Description:
Blueprint: H1 3-22, H2 29-35, H3 40-47, H4 50-76, H5 80-94, H6 102-105, H7 107-111, H8 115-136, H9 147-163, H10 167-183
Amino acid sequence: MSKKEQTHQRILESMHKTFRQYGYDGAGVNGLASGAGVTSGAFYAHFGSKPKAFREVVTGGVRQTELAIQHFQDIHAQQWLDEFVAFYLGEKRCSELSDSCALQSLTPEVVRSGEETREVFQNELTKVVETFDQGKDMLDGDNDTNAWATLAMLIGGVTLARAVKDPALADEIADAVQQAVKKV
Protein backbone atom coordinates (compact mmCIF):
# COMPACT_ATOMS: atom_id res chain seq x y z
CA MET A 1 0.00 0.00 0.00
CA SER A 2 1.42 3.38 -1.01
CA LYS A 3 1.89 6.22 1.44
CA LYS A 4 -1.02 8.06 -0.18
CA GLU A 5 -3.28 5.01 0.27
CA GLN A 6 -2.14 4.64 3.88
CA THR A 7 -2.94 8.29 4.58
CA HIS A 8 -6.35 7.94 2.92
CA GLN A 9 -7.09 4.88 5.05
CA ARG A 10 -5.93 6.63 8.24
CA ILE A 11 -8.19 9.63 7.54
CA LEU A 12 -11.10 7.31 6.71
CA GLU A 13 -10.70 5.32 9.95
CA SER A 14 -10.58 8.52 11.97
CA MET A 15 -13.68 9.83 10.18
CA HIS A 16 -15.61 6.62 10.92
CA LYS A 17 -15.08 7.22 14.64
CA THR A 18 -15.60 10.97 14.56
CA PHE A 19 -18.84 10.98 12.52
CA ARG A 20 -20.27 8.21 14.71
CA GLN A 21 -19.30 9.99 17.90
CA TYR A 22 -20.24 13.58 17.02
CA GLY A 23 -22.50 13.34 13.98
CA TYR A 24 -22.13 15.16 10.71
CA ASP A 25 -22.65 18.67 12.05
CA GLY A 26 -20.51 18.02 15.12
CA ALA A 27 -17.50 17.01 13.03
CA GLY A 28 -15.68 19.85 11.33
CA VAL A 29 -13.10 19.37 8.62
CA ASN A 30 -10.31 20.60 10.91
CA GLY A 31 -11.30 18.04 13.54
CA LEU A 32 -11.62 15.26 10.97
CA ALA A 33 -8.16 16.09 9.62
CA SER A 34 -6.44 16.52 12.97
CA GLY A 35 -7.94 13.26 14.25
CA ALA A 36 -5.97 11.53 11.52
CA GLY A 37 -2.87 13.64 12.04
CA VAL A 38 -3.14 15.49 8.72
CA THR A 39 -3.89 19.02 7.61
CA SER A 40 -7.21 20.24 6.23
CA GLY A 41 -5.49 20.54 2.88
CA ALA A 42 -4.64 16.84 2.96
CA PHE A 43 -8.23 16.06 3.90
CA TYR A 44 -9.52 17.98 0.86
CA ALA A 45 -6.90 16.37 -1.39
CA HIS A 46 -8.18 12.92 -0.43
CA PHE A 47 -11.93 13.51 -0.21
CA GLY A 48 -12.72 16.79 -1.97
CA SER A 49 -15.42 17.86 0.47
CA LYS A 50 -17.00 16.95 3.78
CA PRO A 51 -20.18 15.60 2.10
CA LYS A 52 -18.09 13.32 -0.14
CA ALA A 53 -16.12 12.14 2.87
CA PHE A 54 -19.33 11.43 4.76
CA ARG A 55 -20.69 9.40 1.84
CA GLU A 56 -17.54 7.29 1.88
CA VAL A 57 -17.95 6.73 5.62
CA VAL A 58 -21.60 5.79 5.14
CA THR A 59 -20.72 3.35 2.37
CA GLY A 60 -17.96 1.73 4.40
CA GLY A 61 -19.94 1.68 7.62
CA VAL A 62 -22.99 -0.01 6.14
CA ARG A 63 -20.72 -2.41 4.27
CA GLN A 64 -19.24 -3.43 7.66
CA THR A 65 -22.71 -4.55 8.74
CA GLU A 66 -23.14 -6.58 5.56
CA LEU A 67 -19.75 -8.24 6.12
CA ALA A 68 -20.66 -8.99 9.75
CA ILE A 69 -23.86 -10.71 8.65
CA GLN A 70 -21.92 -12.73 6.06
CA HIS A 71 -19.38 -13.67 8.73
CA PHE A 72 -22.09 -14.91 11.10
CA GLN A 73 -23.69 -16.87 8.26
CA ASP A 74 -20.35 -18.47 7.36
CA ILE A 75 -19.34 -19.31 10.92
CA HIS A 76 -22.67 -20.26 12.52
CA ALA A 77 -24.70 -21.68 9.59
CA GLN A 78 -28.21 -22.50 10.87
CA GLN A 79 -27.65 -20.57 14.09
CA TRP A 80 -26.32 -17.43 12.41
CA LEU A 81 -29.34 -15.24 13.15
CA ASP A 82 -29.48 -16.09 16.86
CA GLU A 83 -25.74 -15.52 17.17
CA PHE A 84 -25.84 -12.27 15.21
CA VAL A 85 -28.76 -10.92 17.26
CA ALA A 86 -27.01 -11.79 20.53
CA PHE A 87 -23.83 -10.09 19.31
CA TYR A 88 -25.60 -7.03 17.96
CA LEU A 89 -27.69 -6.45 21.07
CA GLY A 90 -24.80 -7.22 23.41
CA GLU A 91 -21.47 -6.04 22.13
CA LYS A 92 -22.67 -3.21 19.94
CA ARG A 93 -24.93 -1.81 22.65
CA CYS A 94 -22.12 -1.75 25.17
CA SER A 95 -19.38 -0.41 22.94
CA GLU A 96 -18.33 3.19 22.63
CA LEU A 97 -20.46 5.27 20.28
CA SER A 98 -17.41 5.94 18.12
CA ASP A 99 -17.14 2.17 17.51
CA SER A 100 -20.87 1.58 17.08
CA CYS A 101 -22.61 0.12 14.07
CA ALA A 102 -23.08 2.66 11.30
CA LEU A 103 -26.75 1.74 11.03
CA GLN A 104 -27.30 2.93 14.60
CA SER A 105 -25.14 6.01 14.68
CA LEU A 106 -25.17 7.32 11.11
CA THR A 107 -28.80 6.76 10.06
CA PRO A 108 -30.08 9.93 11.80
CA GLU A 109 -27.29 11.86 10.09
CA VAL A 110 -28.22 10.41 6.71
CA VAL A 111 -31.83 11.51 7.23
CA ARG A 112 -30.59 15.10 7.51
CA SER A 113 -28.24 14.84 4.53
CA GLY A 114 -28.69 15.47 0.86
CA GLU A 115 -30.27 13.27 -1.78
CA GLU A 116 -26.95 11.87 -3.00
CA THR A 117 -26.01 10.63 0.47
CA ARG A 118 -29.46 9.16 1.02
CA GLU A 119 -29.21 7.33 -2.30
CA VAL A 120 -25.80 5.90 -1.36
CA PHE A 121 -27.21 4.81 2.00
CA GLN A 122 -30.23 3.20 0.37
CA ASN A 123 -28.08 1.28 -2.11
CA GLU A 124 -25.82 -0.04 0.66
CA LEU A 125 -28.72 -0.85 2.97
CA THR A 126 -30.39 -2.84 0.21
CA LYS A 127 -27.23 -4.96 -0.06
CA VAL A 128 -27.40 -5.64 3.69
CA VAL A 129 -30.98 -6.85 3.35
CA GLU A 130 -30.08 -9.02 0.33
CA THR A 131 -27.28 -10.62 2.35
CA PHE A 132 -29.65 -11.11 5.25
CA ASP A 133 -32.22 -12.71 2.95
CA GLN A 134 -29.59 -15.08 1.51
CA GLY A 135 -29.00 -16.39 5.02
CA LYS A 136 -32.69 -17.10 5.62
CA ASP A 137 -32.35 -20.36 3.72
CA MET A 138 -29.86 -21.59 6.32
CA LEU A 139 -32.25 -21.13 9.22
CA ASP A 140 -33.91 -24.11 10.83
CA GLY A 141 -37.50 -24.81 9.95
CA ASP A 142 -39.90 -22.71 7.93
CA ASN A 143 -38.56 -19.30 8.82
CA ASP A 144 -40.04 -16.30 7.03
CA THR A 145 -37.94 -13.82 8.97
CA ASN A 146 -38.49 -10.36 7.55
CA ALA A 147 -35.08 -8.73 7.10
CA TRP A 148 -36.44 -5.18 7.18
CA ALA A 149 -38.37 -5.74 10.41
CA THR A 150 -35.49 -7.57 12.06
CA LEU A 151 -32.92 -4.92 11.18
CA ALA A 152 -35.26 -2.13 12.26
CA MET A 153 -35.87 -3.82 15.62
CA LEU A 154 -32.15 -4.39 16.18
CA ILE A 155 -31.15 -0.84 15.25
CA GLY A 156 -33.98 0.73 17.23
CA GLY A 157 -33.46 -1.58 20.19
CA VAL A 158 -29.78 -0.79 20.46
CA THR A 159 -30.48 2.91 20.05
CA LEU A 160 -33.05 2.89 22.87
CA ALA A 161 -30.91 0.70 25.14
CA ARG A 162 -27.95 2.99 24.59
CA ALA A 163 -30.01 6.11 25.31
CA VAL A 164 -31.39 5.14 28.73
CA LYS A 165 -29.40 5.77 31.89
CA ASP A 166 -30.39 2.65 33.85
CA PRO A 167 -28.34 -0.42 32.79
CA ALA A 168 -31.13 -2.74 34.00
CA LEU A 169 -33.62 -0.97 31.72
CA ALA A 170 -31.12 -1.16 28.85
CA ASP A 171 -30.88 -4.93 29.41
CA GLU A 172 -34.67 -5.19 29.53
CA ILE A 173 -34.94 -3.39 26.18
CA ALA A 174 -32.26 -5.59 24.60
CA ASP A 175 -33.89 -8.77 25.97
CA ALA A 176 -37.33 -7.69 24.70
CA VAL A 177 -35.93 -7.03 21.22
CA GLN A 178 -34.11 -10.35 21.20
CA GLN A 179 -37.34 -12.17 22.05
CA ALA A 180 -39.32 -10.19 19.47
CA VAL A 181 -36.80 -11.00 16.72
CA LYS A 182 -37.36 -14.70 17.37
CA LYS A 183 -41.07 -14.17 16.61
CA VAL A 184 -40.60 -12.23 13.37
